[in-house]
Amino acid sequence: MDAGSGTPCSATGGQTLKAPFLLLILLSAAACGDGWGADVDPTELARVGAVIASPSAATEPPSVCFDMSPTDLRFGATLVGGAAQLNADVTLCGDEPLWLYELTVSADSSPAFVPVPLLRPTELVRAGQSLALLVDFQPETPGAHVGILRLRTSEGFFELPLHGQAGSAACVQTPTITVAEGHTVMPQTQLSLSASSPGMSSWRWSVKQPPGSQSVLEPVGEGASVTLEANVVGEYTFQLRAFDSKGKPACGVAEAQVTVDPGPGLHVELTWSTPGDPDETDVNGDTDGLAGSDLDLHVRHPDGLSFDGNADGTGDGCFHPERDAYWLNRAPNWGDANGPGPLFERDDTDGAGPENFRWSTPEDGRTYHVAAHYWSDAGFGESFATVRVFIDGEVVFESPPTRLQAEDLWEVCSIDWPSGEVRSAAWPSGDPRILPGFVPAL
Questions:
Q1: Which of 280-294, 298-312, 394-408, 428-442 has the lowest mean pLDDT?
Q2: Tens digit of pLDDT for each residue in 113-163?
Q3: Does residue 74 share a domain with residue 16?
Q4: Which range among 150-154, 266-270, 279-283, 331-335 shows the weakest confidence by mean pLDDT?
Q5: Cα-flanking dihedrals φ and ψ of residue 56, to 5°?
Q6: Co-location of 195 and 183 in the same domain
């Protein structure tokens, strides 16, 4: 209440600040008149975490600088009836002091989260000074538990998310996955994954791969360590289940993600599916005959387009010994003085691909032409091919799956550099530009 006018005093100067989740209520002098705060109980304001400031400073942001690390607390899997403890550090980063009054959890938090009370109000007075806030996780029921830790300070309330997972006594701690090569890699990276799961004696791996990827976990998804060749651009999600010697599973499923990023410049990727092939993951040598269909990616330099690759009297540029990047010309010398030259990185002769072309610094003022040739169907029949073009790691072109028969040459698209404009190749009818019966005159 304004002591001078008798009018109600309102908190119209209220602000919400995120640091993250820092709530600060400032009372405006303009809302309360000259007798600002006359009927306001300072004890009540402190209880709700308000800041009592002088009228001249009421509209200024708080000067106290502090940080809480980490920004959330995540408890690993804990047995029902067991306990775990984590801490978050409050650190002063400025010259203004900070009072810490009380540590609680929100009313809707799981009762499994039990904050260790502050013994007394504590003042942080110098930059770099910190205090550890302790929280116990004591689950009595299995499943996921969530909550909010609330710290009342002289600057208001600071809130921190809490997460926990509880399992029954029939299981043990959730395993973890380590990826030796890291979580962002280039195409053609051989990933080495290992399990950390004390007390476990058997493991079961699985992987969700980006569209077009047919890589296989070795050794066949079993063992504490596995490998996988990550060839297709996109996200790979690995999951691991672990079991003890009696077959009892760990409490949870471990998960790790790896992103295949082609990096800067130009990257072209060809994948395909062959409905008549019952196992597109097998390789030549696994069977008495050929294991799968063989499609080939071609990226052609404009200087070679007059070359007649199939000796039919028409220039196409395919199979040029120097100006076509393909399986027989994997590192063409295209006169690039600005960086590494182009690379035809992968030739797949027995299945779904991919075949990849990469060039980090293409020549400016040039237009490159992409094609796919169906070299051999190995008796499995038609295939459906997809080409994707990436520039600086972002997909800028993706063809729909295009039906090809053996010996078809599909003119896919052209790429202007450095603009990155991609134009689909098509017949006047709009159909894909496919040249049937294209047999190279090698």
A1: 280-294
A2: 999 998 888 888 888 888 999 999 999 888 899 999 999 999 899 999 999
A3: no
A4: 279-283
A5: -70, -25
A6: yes
Instruction: Give percent helix, percent strand, percent coil of the chain, each to the nearest 5.
Output: 5, 45, 50
Residue pointed to by tokens 């029921």: 141
The DSSP secondary structure of 242-304, one letter per residue, reads EE-TTSPBBSS-EEEEEEE---SSEEEEEEEE-TT-S-TT--TTSSSS--S-EEEEEEE-GGG
Find residue 84's DSSP bridge partners. Answer: 137
Whichever domain contains 95, its CATH number is 2.60.40.10
Instruction: Show Cβ contacts of residue 394 under 8 Å, excluding neighbours closer than 6 positions.
Output: none
* Whether 203 and 98 share a structural domain: no
Residues in the chain: 442
Specify the DSSP class assigned to residue 349.
S
Residue 285 and residue 409 in one domain: yes
Cα distances (Å, whole numbers) of residue 320 to 308, 323, 355, 387: 8, 5, 18, 21
Buried b (16+ CB within 10 A) or exposed e, 213-242: bbbebeeeeebbebebebbbbbebebebbb
- Backbone torsions φ then ψ of 44, nearest 5 degrees: -65, -40
**% pLDDT > 90, the chain:** 54
Beta strands at 22-24 and 66-69: parallel, antiparallel or unpaired: unpaired
pLDDT tens for each residue of 369-427: 999 999 999 999 999 999 999 999 999 999 999 999 999 999 999 999 999 999 999 99
Query: Structure tokens of 211?
Result: 């569209």
Query: From CA 242, how far away is CA 150, in angstroms rounded?
Result: 36
- Strand pairing class (394-398; 266-273): unpaired
Q: What is the DSSP secondary structure assignment for residue 32, as one 8-state letter?
A: H
Single residue among 260, 284, 318 that ends a domain in this structure = 260
| Domain match, 309 and 427 both | yes
- Together in a domain, 425 and 293: yes
Distance CA 116, CA 15 (A): 30
- Measure the CA angle with vertex 122, ends 41 and 130; round to 5°: 135
Place of tokens 């070299």: 375
Segment 31-36 mean pLDDT: 32
Query: Is this model's pTM higher than 0.70 or not?
Result: no
How many domains are contained in the chain? 4
